TrEMBL record:
Gene3D superfamilies listed in its UniProt record: Nucleic acid-binding proteins
Matches recorded under SUPFAM superfamilies: Nucleic acid-binding proteins
Molecular function terms, GO-annotated: ATP binding; four-way junction helicase activity
GO BP, one annotated term: DNA recombination
Domain (DNA helicase Holliday junction RuvA type) ranges: 1-62
Keyword set includes DNA damage: no
Protein's name according to its UniProt entry: Holliday junction DNA helicase subunit RuvA
Source species of the chain: human gut metagenome
Length: 62
């Protein structure tokens, strides 16, 4: 389980944040309120996550 990610925000959209941690970019699906509350791309931030594992997919939600 991935509890949180802390690192550089690489990209923000209305429903996704990409955060770089130890050289790996993680795409996290987030609600608009979370996306708006995170720092601008290029700055450090933390996203608390829930990992959803299914037969066909592994997703992170923040």
């Amino acid at each position: 389980m991935i509890y949180s990610l802390t690192g550089k925000i690489l990209k923000k959209t209305l429903d996704t944040v990409v955060i770089s941690c130890a050289g790996v970019g993680y795409a996290v699906q987030v609600p608009l309120t979370t996306a708006e509350s995170l720092p601008a791309p290029g700055r450090e931030g933390t996203v608390y996550t829930v990992m959803n594992v299914t037969e066909n997919d592994v997703s992170l939600y923040g």
